[in-house]
Write a structure and sequence with these properties.
CATH architecture of the largest domain: 3-Layer(aba) Sandwich
Strand content: 25-35%
Largest sheet: 7 strands, antiparallel
CATH topology of the largest domain: Rossmann fold
Number of strands: 23
Radius of gyration: 21 Å
CATH class of the largest domain: Alpha Beta
Length: 446
Amino acid sequence: MPLRSRFAGSRIPGYVACIAVGVAVGLVAASLIPSLVTPAGSKHPGSTNHSSAPSGSATPRVRIQAARASWVATWAASPMAASDSEQAEQGFSDQTIREIVYVSAGGEALRVHLSNLFGTRPLTIGGASVGVVLDGGELVPASSRRLTFGGRLAVTVPAGATVTSDPLIGGVAPLAELAISIYLPDSTGPATNHRYAGQTTFVASGDQLANAKATSFNLREPSWYFATEVDVRSTTADGTIVAFGDSITDGVGSEDGSDDRWPNFLARRLGAALGDRAPGIVDEGIGGNRVLSGSGCFGQSGLARFERDALSEPGVRAVIVLEGINDIDFAQEPAKACTIPVSGPMTAARIEAGYLQLIAMAHACGIKIYLGTLTPAPIREPLRGEVNRWIMTSHAADGVINFAAATSEPGDPDYYNPEYNSGDNLHPNDLGYATMANAIPLAWVR
């Protein structure tokens, strides 16, 4: 199968992106390998170890399914340039990184996207593998399988490009923790990364792809590097739902390693309700991200990355957008390297115009888009309230998810319910994220 590359700087029109998403992907004949399933005793044996109960009926809705298998995205992390991180800026050399990802939908095969989107030189991948997490950076014995790229174990990714592995055939369990291990033999230069992972990335010297133990991985990092997406091929999963936003979608404030971001809770809720028909749920949140303005520290603006991070996902049929609080917040602060505000005063109308552009882009692709109200943030009033009133009353999107009402203190909508406050009065805790997921009408995403 030929490598697929996505190149930076190509702001293609929405209708072109939709055509590209709709192109059928050829299947590659391969021998079956042992399944990438989560065995008994591992951290995520299905969805039973989390307390978020599904609301409504747990009986799966009857749906006519096409017999043809198709690709859906099951995990994603928005790529960012190296900044404000010594490790990302210096990159890696003769090292193996092991990154922990929590998939949503399962399937009969997977493929992994590795990105050098913000690299300054060609990126040499000496080898890569996927295994099932036993504990921390340790893998279930014999679960690790090597990835190939156009039939080769190694690949060079040009600066500004992303490559996709060949399909790795074998069962992938839903709601499983997988480890993506990447050996980087040469100096990478600045590393394309996702700064906040909410997971530990394990780093070892030399080629440790075959090492299932974690003892050689003596360096710990809080970011994901190079890996930006995992897709699964499924005959049952009903497409992909993209969660698009800022740090609250990224899961800041939840317990590290808990997989308790609101998109994770939504994936478990849908899995409990729909079983193998549950869609893939991918988290395309970036801490500090804004609708209108990009930043060297907080990623490209929502408008600039929407096609790549949302509309181009395989199987995408709906996007949930929760973003705008940083447009308000950064405009109130003195200009800094990471928080340079847009020129002129920030107004609700400017943020609303940004939402309208996102809505138009999604609808041009036939994709539904739901807007979430901005969660409590007292120092950001009254602008937050103005934006939320527009979200609730404009009827511009396909629907509204009232995250603000779900998480606010009864009788005082400017503040978090104390039970849901992570402690910084801006980000929810794990229970708050579960509450956000439960506020999403299942009829919209099932």
